[in-house]
Design brief:
Collagenase (Catalytic Domain); four-stranded mixed β-sheet; 12 helices; binds zinc ion
């Protein structure tokens, strides 16, 4: 990928979206009428995506940008995160969070949930296709592995905020992450431990300081 010409990143989320998020071709012309009614112009889904991700911590975007792969495509199909190679607009990419334009138009939690899987994968093993996600015992830093182990113990307590969060350990992470952003009070009542876990990890500066600083523009080759 191109190195960022700016010596200091001003808006990590915008930089990341610019580098890694794409809209499928003819997205709105192929979408149902009600979706076209929500989005007034072709770029509006990207603005909605940026808004949906606004709640996530700024350090996350710099972290993701420092590693190879990890994409978002807003498309007509279902929302899901797929590990491994994919084609986006004629380019070979890998590890793609596909977000349904209908889910984006509904304004619900699904876009955050799907991005949550990407985050889980990258915190665990920087997007290694066979590597362990944070929720499965991975973790690029010792402190992150410890956080992942604690996450497993919290999941085992069975206080997941809803059925979707109870489905699996990775859904526990992704759904709880979305709830932390969108329904924090509800999450704090239903599952206060995971609320505290997020506050002490992704939303704590110390969590990100655990990363070894990489020289600007450095990429892991895998
Ligand atoms: Zn899921």
């Amino acid at each position: 990928m191109n190195s960022n010409p700016k010596s200091k990143i001003q808006n990590p989320k915008s930089d990341w979206l610019h580098a890694r998020a794409r809209l499928a071709p003819n997205l709105l012309s192929a979408a149902p009428a009600w979706v076209r009614g929500v989005f007034e112009h072709a770029w509006a889904p990207m603005q909605a995506l940026a808004g949906a991700l606004d709640c996530l911590p700024a350090q996350l975007w710099s972290f993701l940008l420092s590693h190879d792969g990890g994409w978002i495509v807003v498309h007509p199909g279902p929302s899901r995160y797929v590990v491994g190679p994919a084609r986006i607009a004629g380019h070979d990419r890998r590890n793609v969070a596909s977000i349904s334009v209908e889910d984006l138009a509904r304004g619900g939690e699904m876009p955050l949930h799907v991005v949550g899987h990407l985050v889980d994968h990258y915190l665990g093993c920087a997007g290694d296709p066979g590597g362990a996600w944070l929720s499965h015992g991975g973790g690029l830093e010792p402190a992150w592995r410890a956080a992942g182990e604690r996450l497993g113990r919290l999941f085992a307590l069975g206080h997941a905020v809803d059925e979707a969060a109870a489905a699996s350990i990775e859904d526990y992470f992704a759904r709880s992450l979305a709830c932390y952003c969108r329904r924090p009070r509800e999450l704090n009542v239903a599952d206060p431990n995971i609320w505290k876990w997020f506050r002490a990890t992704l939303w704590d500066d110390g969590f990100w300081h655990a990363t070894v600083p990489r020289p600007p523009g450095a990429e892991r080759s895998m």
